[in-house]
Amino acid sequence: MTKYQAKTLKTENSVDDFILSVDNDRQPDCQAIVQLMREESGYPPKMWGPAIIGFGSYHYKYASGHEGDAPIVAFSPRKTAISLYLGMFEGRDELLSQLGKHRTGKGCIYINKLADIDTVILRKMVTAVLTQYKKL
What we know:
By secondary structure, the protein is α+β, with helices and mostly antiparallel strands. The strands form two sheets. The chain has a six-stranded antiparallel sheet with strand order 1-2-5-6-8-7.
């Protein structure tokens, strides 16, 4: 049996260079999300793989033996939307109902632009995620 290798690993690539490679109209939103997540988390932004900006990290291990590291909070500017990686946390549904225009996927929250959401609620969501991880 081959050991699983995580695809998304922390890199030393430049967050600023990555943001400059994003569509010009998305760059201000990316810079604002970096600032918001940095302020709320207290962690510097780091690149995870080629297109995810993450803050902090944690180690996970599943019953299957699969383990690895992942950012505590992260986002990625994709072609169709900005993906917010906040995972599951206490109060998630209530905060999502107050967030503004968004869609959800497995563990992601998708927004078209920062102006579509309430950034005060996004800050509360980031704080909730960090509070949960500190309890682990």
